[in-house]
Design brief:
The complex is a heterodimer of chains A (about 90) and B (about 600). Chain A is mainly alpha-helical. Chain A contains 2 helices and 2 strands; from the N terminus they run H-E-E-H. Chain B has one domain: Sodium/glucose cotransporter (Up-down Bundle), CATH 1.20.1730.10. The chains are: A mainly alpha (about 90), B mainly alpha (about 600).
């Protein structure tokens, strides 16, 4: 039981770390590139849109998608490593 | 075949499909009624979640909101999709592991308090009821325009259809109808978008068209550059420019994100999948299906804006808009391609007036000093396109682009699918909170399975009646009411769920105090500017940026409410005694996927 809860703590710590990294990316693409950093990215264009505009209307959505699938894949691996999968 | 018959056929066929599914997927137990027996495959749940989430606001209103404002309304695109990251990482897997039927049930168990559960029920009902009003209006408006009945009659028809499949099918019936509704709505949204993108940019994919070149002028110029040029020439603000407060934009986007993650009718969809891993995948699939509409919407909005502008200023296509004549009254009345202008005028969503009596309709920004100078010189006396409601943009888009009749009929069915699927999800969230959390949880815990199922169906019937009544008598500001729904979801449900999972130290005193502070601070801030309980004329302060606290708009206040909720919960918990050991063990257990297994009803 003590072994179990120790390993569960390690599992939870690893999960929280993955979440934090993912949320940093989540905030960077939307609040960062899409809004606050847009003036700094003005010189860079994707077709007819400046990079900030593109992130605000397209790019951040693609990044969100990638993040959720990355998290699902990474967590399923982590579940297996710690033997807590269903 | 005339347009009316075509509309009737397509909409009728879609309704027959929904009813057919409902008969096939009747709920036989409370587990089926509340959580579809927890046997929905993740991809199908993703599709149902997408339909559940994408409401009349996403389908009918969003492209119009972007079209007439431009970059600054990107907040809706990021906010309404970014919330799924929070849902997938912070809430859905753990709540699925918990394995119960409603959001208040989690709050009540985790914070070992019926009081906390009841506060959560109140928040849930306020959020879901305000949200459902917009859906019922959406149904009414769509019916009124396409099937030539009154808005009220449309509302009754819509309510009857929802009643038929939600009351009998419960979550199981709703799930499979939502899958069908998703297919209808996404087809209806993307087909006109593909046509229009091809016409306007030469690219069949709207996502590429948006950043591509403008085809009618020979492709020598980017589409967005052309759009900026045309709207600025008529005195409107630059489409791609950032012209509002950055702080408010950040807070509004954040409010929409955490509000989305805190919407009970979306959260309960994740209770229907078999395993924790499925809840994670399912959130990804939901966003795939949502992104199909959300990445197309900014293209639809911007292309429609240019299409509308060049309808009123034909010369805008090849050169300077003001170098040519505006559209003439005679043309509007005789050209069959422009018959949509008069059709929509009869609905009251569009209006024009030849103020200076010159036989032409001048559409420009009459508040812009530069344009006022031009107007004086040319003898214009004000903008003559006096009304163009944002909500008609998506519905009228196929007509504006002169697309075939079946596309128009499809859009009608799509608008109805979007509104009905969301309404059904909301009604289920409301009825399960009443029958499971209030009746079974507090009033009559000894109720039998059969009795509870009946109670669930009766509460659903009442919820539909209430929603219909509110749809017939909407409060003063129907649109602003949605700000309240998101603000409250952000300030109450999201924080309490997140703290319940990520902290073992937050106790019942902290959770209740936090929810109440979030609820009252957000509601009061919104009421101060938009009127107490939305009664027109009762606002304490004028709703202008100068009066806002740090320039934060009422609709953006959910972020502040959430921060106040988190802060209050931490301080109050720190001052009171820690949760009992068994609650700390409960938190340990929901953090680990192993052992979720089958439904643990009670």
């Amino acid at each position: 039981m003590a072994e179990d809860s120790k390993d569960n703590n390690a599992y939870w710590a690893a999960n929280v770390r993955i979440i934090l990294i993912s949320l940093v990316i989540w905030a960077t693409v939307s609040f960062g590139f899409g809004i606050i950093l847009r003036p700094l990215l003005m010189g860079i264009y994707i077709g007819g849109a400046d990079l900030g505009f593109w992130f605000a209307q397209q790019g951040s959505i693609y990044a969100f998608l990638a993040l959720i699938f990355f998290y699902a894949w990474r967590m399923n691996k982590l579940d297996a490593e710690h033997g807590v999968e269903e | 075949m005339d347009q009316y018959t075509l509309n009737l056929l397509v909409v009728g066929a879609s309704f027959a499909l929904y009813i057919g599914i409902a008969i096939w997927a009747r709920a036989g137990s409370t587990a089926e009624f509340y959580a579809a027996g927890q046997g929905v495959p993740p991809v199908l749940n993703g599709m149902a979640t997408a339909a559940d989430w994408m409401s009349a606001a996403s389908f009918i209103s969003m492209a119009g909101l972007i079209a007439f404002v431009g970059y600054d309304n990107s907040t809706f695109l990021m906010g309404w999709t970014g919330g799924y990251v929070l849902l997938a990482l912070l809430l859905a897997p753990y709540l699925r592991k918990f394995g119960k039927f409603t959001v208040p049930e989690f709050v009540g168990d985790r914070f070992y308090s019926n009081g906390a559960r009841v506060v959560a029920v109140i928040c849930l009902i306020v959020i879901s009821v305000t949200y459902v009003i917009g859906q019922m209006r959406g149904v009414g408006v769509t019916f009124a325009r396409f099937l030539e009945v009154s808005t009220d009659t449309g509302l009754y028809i819509g309510a009857t259809i929802v009643f038929a499949y939600a009351v009998f099918g419960g979550m199981k019936g709703i799930t499979y109808t939502q899958v069908a509704q998703y297919c209808v709505l996404i087809t209806a949204y993307t087909i006109p978008a593909l046509f229009i993108s091809l016409q306007m940019t030469g690219s069949i994919l709207p996502q590429l068209g948006l950043i591509g070149t403008y085809a009618p002028s020979g492709g020598d110029m980017y589409f967005l550059t052309k759009l900026d040029e045309v709207v600025m020439e008529l005195g409107f603000s630059q489409y791609t420019a950032h012209s509002t407060s950055t702080l408010n934009m950040v807070f509004f986007t954040m409010s929409l994100m955490i509000g989305t993650a805190g919407l009970p009718h979306v959260i309960i969809r994740f209770f229907t999948v078999p395993k924790v891993a499925d809840a994670r995948w399912s959130a990804g699939w939901a966003l795939v299906f949502i992104a199909l509409l959300y990445t197309v919407a900014p293209a639809v909005g911007s292309m429609a804006r240019l299409n509308i502008t060049s309808t009123f200023w034909p010369n805008a296509v090849t050169g300077q808009a003001l170098a040519g004549d505006p559209i003439s009254l005679e043309e509007i009345n005789t050209n069959p391609d422009l018959s949509w202008i008069n059709t929509w005028r009869t609905t009251g969503l569009l209006d024009f007036e030849d103020k200076n009596g010159d036989g032409f309709i001048q559409y420009y920004n009459d508040a812009n000093p530069e344009l006022q100078a031009i107007a004086t010189e040319r003898g214009w006396v004000g903008n003559e396109l006096t009304k163009f409601d944002r909500d008609m943009l998506v519905l009228a888009n196929p007509e504006i682009a002169a697309l075939p009749g079946w596309v128009i009929a499809l859009v009608a069915a799509g608008g109805l699918a979007a509104a009905l699927s969301t309404a059904a999800g909301l009604l289920l969230a409301i009825s399960s909170a009443i029958s499971h959390d209030l009746i079974k949880g507090s009033i009559n815990p000894g109720i039998s399975e059969k009795g509870e199922l009946l109670a669930a169906r009766v509460s659903m019937g009442f919820a539909i009646a209430l929603a219909t009544w509110l749809g017939l008598n909407p409060p003063g500001f129907a649109a602003q009411v949605v700000a309240l729904a998101f603000g409250l979801a952000a300030a109450t449900i999201f924080p309490v769920l997140m703290m319940g999972i990520f902290s073992k130290r937050i106790n019942k005193e902290g959770a209740i105090a936090g929810m109440l502070v979030g609820l009252f601070s957000t509601a009061i801030y919104i009421f101060l500017f938009l009127g107490w309980f939305f009664i027109p004329g009762t606002a304490t302060l004028a709703n202008t940026p100068d009066n806002w606290l740090f320039g934060i708009a009422p609709a953006s206040f959910g972020t502040v409410g959430a921060l106040l909720n988190f802060g209050t919960a931490y301080i109050v918990s720190a001052m009171t005694k820690e949760p009992p050991v068994e609650i700390q063990e409960l938190v340990e257990s929901i953090r680990v996927p192993k052992g979720a297994g089958a439904a643990t009803g009670h």
